[in-house]
Amino acid sequence: METIGIIVAMPQESDAVLRLIGQRARTDFGKHRYYRFRISGRKCWLLTSGMGIQRAAEATRILIDAASPQLLVSVGIAGAVNADLEIGDVVASRDTCLFEDGNAGPFQPLARLSEAAWQAAEKALQPSGKGLYPGTAVTTHGAQPIQQLLEHMENPVLEMETAGIISAAAEKSIPVISLRAISDGPRAPIPFNLEQMMDENDNLRTGVIIQTILGHPRMLPQLVRMGHNSRLAADNAALTLLAALSQSGPVINP
Question: Is residue 129 classed exposed, middle or buried when 0-12, 13-18 and 19+ CB atoms within 10 A define those classes?
Fold first, then answer.
């Protein structure tokens, strides 16, 4: 029986998946918590890694040791670089790269959804009026002013984990899918500089965030909107995941 490892960064993203899952079992392994369930007979392990490349890579290695998956999925929310994508649209990336110090690193191919999985995911998104698009997962250490550097890519999305996941997966030659739903972008930007709100270990600096909000009370409506958009994006990423994995042969390896 095929085993699939699913890695998300935040509880909001794992909660969105679990809301769609029926019976499941919880397992605590060290500092990590796993949820085990089945989709169309496949064993699935869901892990919340925490934000950032290092946490994602560490959690992926632990998941590989615990479950020996044949496929890994990086799923969750992301930021759009270009204005073409709407909040709630989902990008199934064809490749990924690490962006740091103003440069995009080598592109690494990702596994792709099969035609049946793609069609099933599109159908699942139809009630929300959102679409499924191919693109590129650009892993960063927080928001960076990089639009002009990446605008030549097909639907680039900014996130903080896929490069770490694929680095760990490559050690065992395990294919990786990336499914990311848009929570922010040019149409609905994050109302603060995310990079300034994080330390060198990709931890949110809660005190700085609170001070920023207290100093800019007009930011509150934008934060409410951001919360709504993040919920929609997490829900659509989860819908896409379950629809795709419910198909036979959902993946085309790179």
Answer: exposed
